[in-house]
Structures are given as structure tokens and as C-alpha cells.
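Record 1 of the preview.
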Amino acid sequence: MSGVLLTVAFYVLLRFKAIADGALGVGFSRTLFVTVGLLSLMVAASLLLSQRDYKRMLAYHSVEHMGLIALGAAAGTPLAIAAVLLHVLGHGLAKAVLFLASGEILLVEGTTEIDQVKALLARRPALGESSPSGSSPCSVCRPSVCSSVSSTCCARKCTLAWDGSPRSRSC
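->
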């Protein structure tokens, strides 16, 4: 649901951009999208670094992705818009898998705290494997200002699956 709502909301912003470009000139919407995109990247980065709740981490990660999409839309070229649409599609699909997996982890473990979920891969292999497989599309090939934050986010998600010795396996 989150991927669909964010996509629809951003579609409205793209429609606004098309109207604003004609009425106010390209500079207004470009400046607006760059400002909002960079602001959302900075806010999401600061909140992701301090987050210990995996469901909130996924939500802040979506805020970061919307900032990246806003920066792509600000460029406005056909290639940038194609990249934005591809990014929206990938984000929606991957985030759906991750939110479903996090809901199942919540049902199984009874908590959303990362530190309290231990040895998930050893106890529930199918559930433990779905979390890293869903986070892989979120972290691959993104020109993110916050790439270290995203790596930290994905590393935390991967530690949910491993059995107490994170060095024994790779994510």
C-alpha cells in the first residue's frame, strides 16, 4: 500500500510540474523539486542513522527514495523521467516485499525492535531470506547522496536474519 500511495502522490506532483512549467517557467518547479528532494534526503538520512525500529526504518527509507525521485524529476529530461519511472516501479515492488516481511516478523517475534530479533534465519529460513532479498533492489545502482546511510539501513535489515554471528555469513 505504501508503494502505491507514494507513487500516486508523486504522480500528482509530476502533474503539478507539467502545469507549473507552462505557467511559471521551468526554473520554478526545478528549484522546488531540488529543494524538497535534498531536504527529504537530509531528514531521512538523519532519522535512518538513529532508528532502531525496522518498520520505521522502512518508512524513512521511502522518504529517502522520494527525495531521489524528486531530484530525477527536477532534471526533467526524457532519460531522467524514464529513470524516475523505473525507480518508482522498483521501489514499489521491493518495498511491498519488505513491508510484508516486516509484518510477518512482527507477528512471529512480537516486536519491531531490531536488537530484539535474533537468529531469524536459523529459526524461520523462508522469512529470514525474504528480508535481504527484498532489500537488495533497494540498495543496488542508486546514485544516492546518502549511500552510506542506505548501506547502514540494509546492513541492519540483514542482521535481522543472521544467527548471532554476522561475520559468518554475508548479506
